[in-house]
Amino acid sequence: MKIDIITVLPELLESPFAHSILKRAKEKGLLEVNIHNLRKWALNEYGQIDDYQYGGGAGMVMMPEPLANAIEHLAKETKYDEVIFMTPDGELFNQKMANALSLKENLLIICGHYKGIDDRIREHFVTKEISVGDYVLSGGELAAAIVTDAIGRLIPGVLNNETSALFDSFQDNLLAPPVYTRPADFRNWKVPEILLSGDPKKIDEWRNEQSLQRTAERRPDLLDDK
Question: What pLDDT, in 10s, does the model give residues 4-30?
Fold first, then answer.
């Protein structure tokens, strides 16, 4: 999979993709992440990519020309399955969406900044708008990192144990069950006996029951969609 990200602050995206699972995914050749500085397509020598908004109001707006030029330049080399804009008023990102996007081959993500991007870019270039929550960030970079991480770890071969992603929270609209490790008795707090039984069938049944119980207690809204 290839993910291209357009941003005015590429420095914010250096660390998230240089460590842990996504680093290994890139090293294995399973995931390619390219960060593109929008100022490469700036209108002048001062690196201008924003201007005052028509109609007045506080906040600068990212201009259409640099973004259009960047998107068209990148699209000459790559046929994108989706051109994504990270925005608070987009569709709420969830595990189902991550699963679907992980099946794509090429994604282009646009990180907004300042007051946002000129709406004509959204109208004529963007195919999908995504929000990571009902709050506002300083820019789309952290949101883009979240989406890239959630998608990247689902690519076959990225995780050492590929089945582990199947038991994450929100897969099948359930929260993950509680997990334990050694020692079996810590400060007289003991691991549930069933997990020490060595019976895979009973352990699976217990985990499913725990997932249902935890979901009912903490996120009953997820069960409404089952």
Answer: 999 999 999 999 999 988 999 999 999
Residues 33 and 139 in one domain: yes
Asked whether the beta carbons of 90 and 131 are under 8 A apart, the reply is yes
Dihedral pair phi/psi, residue 17, rounded to 5°: -105, 5
Structural domain harbouring 148:
2-152
Decide if 175 contacts 219 (C-beta within 8 A): yes
Query: Does residue 163 fall inside a structural domain?
Result: no
Regarding whether 63 and 142 lie in a shared domain, the answer is yes
Distance between CA atoms of 135 and 148, rounded to whole angstroms?
19
Decide: helix, strand or coil at residue 145.
Answer: helix
Is the residue at 157 inside a domain? no
Residue 153: both structure tokens together: 């770890």
pTM of the model: 0.89
Rounded CA-CA distance 204/191 in Å is: 16
